[in-house]
Amino acid sequence: IDMNLVDAQQARRVLDRMVGYRISPLLWAKVKRGLSAGRVQSVALRLVADREEEINAFIPEEYWTLDVILKIKGEKRPLTAKFYGTDQ
Predict the structure, then answer these.
(1) Which residue range(s) make up the domain with 46?
(2) Is the CB of residue 64 less than 8 Å from the CB of residue 76?
(3) Molecular function terms in GO for this entry (predicted)?
(4) Residue 75 lies in a domain
(5) What distance in Å separates the CA atoms of residue 50 and residue 53, rounded to the nearest whole number?
(6) Number of structural domains found in the chain
(7) Does pLDDT of 87 surpass 80?
(8) I need a surface site. Which of 5, 66, 74, 82 has the fewest CB within 10 A?
(9) Which residues on adjacent β-strands are paired with residue 84?
């Protein structure tokens, strides 16, 4: 048995209990009964909340492409033209 892995697991267990057992009751008292917090859960929720803020702050901008294939009489190969633009 790798004792370093055992020690790491025990440290995670202690941290889970310290965070979860102390913060969850605060959430019940201050926010809503039944909510929970944890070492990993709290970080994951923060990532989701940050991404939601980015999505809500997004301002769409018009952007489009125009691809044209031109066939010219007497030419074997068509001419391809591409344009990329915005509304400006």
Answers:
(1) 3-57
(2) no
(3) DNA binding; DNA topoisomerase type I (single strand cut, ATP-independent) activity
(4) no
(5) 5
(6) 1
(7) no
(8) 74
(9) 65
